[in-house]
Design a protein that fits this description.
alpha+beta, four-stranded antiparallel β-sheet, 3 helices, globular
């Protein structure tokens, strides 16, 4: 599995309700994508970047197919009307610690 994290700040003065409506639409589209395992969204408690969206995909190919789709390209263009300082990171498993470790297990 791979994790794709997109980080960004909001543009000053955006319409928060319009952003919430956009987010609902974008999340719905992502949840229907083949190969998607999980979707998470976080706000930075310390400032910038303000938002982190993390998706977990079965394979890098699943993410690539989704990210190249016309539907995602349109949503990504719309996202840019709300955000700035956007970056995307793609993470794969560690060869040393390939699975999560939890205390007491």
């Amino acid at each position: 599995m791979i994790e794709v994290s997109t980080l960004y700040d909001f543009l000053p003065g955006i319409n928060q309700q319009a952003y919430a409506e956009f987010a609902k639409k974008a999340i719905g589209s992502m949840l229907q994508a083949p190969g998607l395992v999980e979707f998470r969204a976080n706000r930075n408690m310390l400032g910038s970047p303000q938002v982190r969206i993390t998706t977990v995909w079965q394979t890098l190919g699943d993410w690539a197919k989704f990210s190249e789709s016309a539907a995602w390209q349109a949503l990504e263009a719309e996202l840019h009307t709300f955000n700035t300082n956007s970056s995307t990171e793609i993470w794969g498993p560690s060869p040393v610690v390939p699975e999560p470790l939890r205390p007491g297990r």
